[in-house]
């Protein structure tokens, strides 16, 4: 079954090419909301009414009535059905039948926040009908390089520039969840004020994920390979409400800085330049990392990656970062 990617439609919606039916699916919810907002803005000038339904509590009769009717003051209607994955089987067939008839008086958008497998795409009656009458659009999570481009583009909207390296640092700090990344970008814009360029120092000072003094302390514990100190700091942060994924990001960030610095040392890069590039201001940092081998750091990164993947995939519930951290020392 053919379906489109978000980037094939983003920014290209106008009144002449809007499909009567869209089925949006995938894990990148911010992009789904962005697309829906673009659609609403395009239809807003056409006296368009909007109705929202939820799959978990959907009354098919109400939906059918809404699809078929318009008020005296409207020339168009946009119907958004959220929680599309919760539509019951019998209702699914009825709705698919209505869509399949074509000539709809309304524009209909189904929003499914789940990642779907091929067999789920091919079995779902609504998706099949939407593919015939409109567009089925995938909203997958962005790859790292796409997140970096997203950050650069979002800052440009606020007349701010950022280097590719600093945009990567921002991504490593905020992670690949676009809601978190966008939130950090919005904070950076306010923090920067009249400045035209966002720097790594701005990101470091502005980030609300973990307080700056705690970043220094945990970084020191990692560089000292001090397990007891690191676990005590992690306990304090978790007890104060710090999210687990913020700690993942901090450890990823530190180990990547070590790898970058060791690579620069091999090329005889001056200490000042190394510190500038890795965004750390401890002059003893280059000497502290001598004890680490490249292969050792890669193993630690692999350990972090596998643990994070297990949590995101649901293999591990109620994960305790202290257990993960203990394996790194």
Alpha-beta content class: alpha/beta
**Could you give the count of β-strands?**
8
Distance between the termini: 49 Å
Number of DSSP helical runs: 17
* CATH third-tier fold name of the largest domain: Zinc Finger, Delta Prime, domain 3
Annotated CATH architecture of the largest domain: Up-down Bundle
The radius of gyration computed from the alpha-carbon positions, rounded to a whole number of angstroms, is 24 Å
User: Biggest β-sheet: count, sense, barrel?
Assistant: 6 strands, parallel
Helix content: 55-70%
Shape designation = elongated
Strand-residue fraction?
A: 5-15%
Q: What top-tier CATH class of the largest domain fits best?
A: Mainly Alpha
In round numbers, the mean pLDDT is 84
The secondary-structure element order is: EHEHEHEHEHHEHEHHEHHHHHHHH
Which strand order do you get reading across the main beta sheet?
1-6-2-5-4-3
Low-confidence stretches at least 5 residues in length (pLDDT < 50)? none
The number of domains: 2
Explain the overall architecture:
By secondary structure, this protein is of the alpha/beta class. It folds into two domains: 4-138, Rossmann fold (3-Layer(aba) Sandwich); 145-326, Zinc Finger, Delta Prime, domain 3 (Up-down Bundle). It has helices spanning 6-9, 29-43, 60-68, 89-100, 118-123, 125-133, 144-157, 164-174, 178-192, 200-206, 212-224, 227-239, 244-266, 271-278, 285-288, 294-312, 321-326; strands at residues 4-5, 21-25, 48-54, 76-82, 107-112, 135-138, 161-162, 197-198. It has a six-stranded parallel β-sheet, with helices on both faces. It has a two-stranded parallel sheet with strand order 7-8. Helix 4 (89-100) links the parallel strand 4 and strand 5. Helix 7 (144-157) crosses helix 8 and helix 7 runs parallel beside helix 9 (178-192). It is elongated.
